[in-house]
Amino acid sequence: MLTSISGRSVVVTGASKGIGKGIARVFASKGARVLLAARDIAQAEAAAAEIRSQGGIASAVSADVAKPEDNARMARTAVELYGGIDILCCNAGIFPSARLGEMSLADWSRVLDTNLQGMFLSVDACLPHLKARGQGRIVVTSSITGPITGYPGWSHYAASKAGQLGFIRTAAIELAPHNITVNAVLPGNIRTEGVEALGPEYLARMTAAIPQRRLGSVEDVAYAALFLASDEAAFITGQTIVVDGGQVLPESHMALEDL
Ligand code: NAP
């Protein structure tokens, strides 16, 4: 049993759908006060209302993580609503597909600006408030794609997700004197709105590639994030937890066919 995070102020980016919404819901179910950020405010408000209807404390803010001023507004809103920030979950991300030779500089930049630079901007905006608490948690949603695996069409995405791990390892050192830990969860294939949009053929092929023979749930990732945000994880920093049902383990197709 983890020490309660009840009352903690939590900012989750990309929280109107998918994994971010799952993180917000699970943290709120443990008594945390959550601020859900996304660009589409109507969808973020709806997600916050859903959490409130289940008894949680949740609000929404419109923020594009790629924009410094939006991250500043997000941090300000959390402080106004909840009196500070204890936990930042940098989860916002996009995964459009484009192969090399077709990928434009604009395609590359949009993914890096959102996934990698957006994470930096969210941390930068929330950091003074995390420091002010005397302790804090930063949990980044990276991916197996980039840090461990590759997939055609996702070289920009993979670079952004591997880049996040480079970031957390140095940020963890810099922020250790402030009792702020910086860790990442690395999801495999998780059933979210974004992944559903990749189509039934992708979902079927991915399910077949996972030893547990199912896609992950958003809760599977949220509980790993919850552990990293807990008091019990105080001595863990600059580290990663893979949440993938064993997807990265088979050394060949045969390992799965022989199951
Ligand atoms: P999703 O279902 O597409 O949801 C993405 C969320 O991010 C939405 O709330 C979206 O809302 C928000 N978002 C996108 N761009 C944003 C921006 N510029 N500023 C603020 N919010 C933004 O995606 P998901 O599958 O849950 O993925 C969430 C994270 O997990 C991503 O970082 C992704 O790379 C990572 N991940 C997912 C999987 C998976 O299998 N699902 C696997 C590995 C890693 P708006 O569009 O309204 O902004």
Characteristics:
binds NADP nicotinamide-adenine-dinucleotide phosphate, 9 helices, Rossmann fold, 259 residues, 15% strand, alpha/beta, seven-stranded parallel beta sheet
SSE class: alpha/beta
Give the C-alpha Rg.
Answer: 18 Å
Residue share in helix: 40-55%
Please, how many helices? 9
From N to C, what is the helix and strand string? EHEHEHEHEHEHHHEH
Ranges where pLDDT stays below 50 over 5 or more residues in a row are: none
Q: Can you list the ligands bound to this structure?
A: NADP nicotinamide-adenine-dinucleotide phosphate
Q: Can you say what the CATH homologous superfamily is?
A: NAD(P)-binding Rossmann-like Domain
CATH topology: Rossmann fold
Percent strand equals 15-25%
Q: Which sheet architecture does the biggest sheet show?
A: 7 strands, parallel
User: What's the overall geometry?
Assistant: globular
Quaternary state of this entry equals single chain
Any guess at the CATH architecture? Answer: 3-Layer(aba) Sandwich
Query: What is the average of the pLDDT values?
Result: 97
